[in-house]
Amino acid sequence: MENFNLDAIRQIIETDHQAYDENFTKGDASQFAKHYTTDACIFPANYPKMFGTEAINAFFDGAYKMGIRNIKLTSSEVMGGPEFVIESGAVELLIDKGISVYKGKFIIIWKQQNDQWKMYRDIWNIDTPAQTQN
To answer: What sections of the protein cross the membrane (predicted)?
Structure first.
């Protein structure tokens, strides 16, 4: 990409996060993976790595069926170049009535596919310390 502009990509990412949350709020599982490249992987906490459109849609459809109604992604850092852009930030999951049930952090690697910036690798984990057994 000759005219790489990180500020423009930050705006694309912000717009994508808003659309992602709107898709999730509607419970439209077919829309979740459209934000990812066709060869994307997600790395959810406490689950194995999931690869591809079908697995990503199934994971987020399952989260919706479990009661998650909103995913709020707040970007704090965006860096990179024309091949890959790396974003880090905070994630919050909410159930009905806007009740927060999960706060954590994420790293997303973005890459272009069909002239659109999409999520290529997505990993997140919770901020709450792990429970220990006595």
So the answer is: none
Q: Is the pLDDT of residue 5 over 90?
A: yes
DSSP 127: S
Q: Which residue's entry shows tokens 């790489």?
A: 4
Side chain identity at 6, as an amino acid letter? L
Of 117, 69, 74, nearest to 93 (Cα)? Answer: 69
**pTM, entire model:** 0.90
**Residue among 123, 132, 57, 134 nearest 89 (CA):** 123
State pLDDT tens for residues 73-96. 999 999 999 999 999 999 999 999
Domains by residue range for the chain, with CATH: 6-100 (3.10.450.50)
